[in-house]
Amino acid sequence: SKLWSKYGLYIILSMIIIVASVIGYQLKVYLDKSNNEKLLETYINALNNESIEQQTAMFESLTNSNNDYLSGMSAIKAANLLIERGNIEEGIIELDKIIKNEKYDTIMRDLATYLLLMHNINSLSEDEFLNYISKQQIEESKFRFLFRELISIKKLLLGKNEDSIREFQLLINITDVPKEVKTRAMKFIQI
């Protein structure tokens, strides 16, 4: 009884703090989940929307969301829509912004790099082209095989046939290269 009168208030306050913390955490999880569901719904609606202007507006609104994955995907889709509509320079500029923005996940920046290089494969010099791809991306990126393939194609387009064949052969010899990439590389060697 003396113990309760001396520490009872502290015990009650501790219990209230614990309960309030659990409720606060659960509320935050619920609100985050609810917000992410709304963002995903907006993304899906944008994908299914037939109006390019509305799609663009929806994707651009999602690029400012606090869900970095959906934000990155939306930024890439918005850039691709610009390119599809003939605003190639503007779309390339947007892809370049994604590449340089540390907010986006590495895989989003690598995808933007791949798309930018695909669109500019004929217009960039070899040095400009290679400046977009780091050694780390070539060795560790989820897109590493596609980057190697692009480098090989660029060399082929520049008339550096021996270098291109060597790069394609190196790509073919990597054990975990996807079958499609290996098949394309073998076809390019035959050209």
Using only C-alpha atoms, the radius of gyration works out to 25 Å
Largest sheet: none
Mean pLDDT across the residues is: 90
| Helix share bin | over 70%
* Secondary-structure content class: mainly alpha
Estimate what percentage of residues fall within beta strands.
Answer: under 5%
Q: What's the helix-strand series?
A: HHHHHHHHHH
Protein described:
The protein is mostly helical. The chain contains ten helices and no strands. The protein has helices at residues 2-48, 52-62, 68-84, 88-100, 106-119, 126-131, 135-140, 144-157, 161-173, 179-190. Helix 1 (2-48) runs antiparallel to helix 2 (52-62) and helix 8 (144-157) runs antiparallel to helix 9. The longest helix has 47 residues, at 2-48. The protein starts with a helix and ends with a helix. 24% of the residues are buried. The model has no long low-confidence stretch (mean pLDDT 90).
What attributes does this structure have?
0% strand; 80% helix; 10 helices; elongated; 191 residues
Brief synopsis:
The protein is an all-alpha fold.
Topology diagram in text:
Blueprint lengths: L1 H47 L3 H11 L5 H17 L3 H13 L5 H14 L6 H6 L3 H6 L3 H14 L3 H13 L5 H12 L1
Helix pairs in contact: 1-2, 2-3, 3-4, 3-5, 4-5, 8-9, 9-10
